[in-house]
Amino acid sequence: MNSMKTSLILVVSATALAACAKKPPEELPPAPVTTPAPAPAPAPTAASGPTVGSQQHFEQAVGGSTVIYFDTDRFNIDSADAAALQAQAQYFARYPELTFTVEGHADERGTREYNLALGERRANSAKNYLVSLGVASNRIRTVSYGKERPVALASTEAAWAQNRRAASIIIN
Q1: Would you state the CATH architecture of domain 55-170?
Q2: How far apart are CA 54 and CA 60, in angstroms?
Q3: DSSP 73
């Protein structure tokens, strides 16, 4: 009895499927008409120069003076550093919505702990000078990398001089 029910269900299903089968159309649709492809629209031109508030815009606006350099075991601001920081303060006065980080760095000589502390003093020295020029302290974050992120890898006085620095980096 079960096999008879199963057979009956199969026959009914097959009949239903056959009734649903599509019949080919009596007449085919016309072939598509070929039209020439439209010329691509010119790409919108980007505004000349870097985006306002970007690191590149900052560097361009301050004449590349985003980094100040220090003597060995020092963290004082000299006249060249003061000029660079004044240019930075003017930039940040024009764009009060920007926040930034001052990164303190040291050369490879000395212990890791000593260089981290020296990098922190360098970053704070730059920050304090910027604050004295009117930049709000809550816009400035400081971080010390010590000797962990050198820009010059040689063990020479010239390389060490490049690594003793404080760099201002735009956050937003």
Answers
A1: 2-Layer Sandwich (3.30)
A2: 10
A3: T
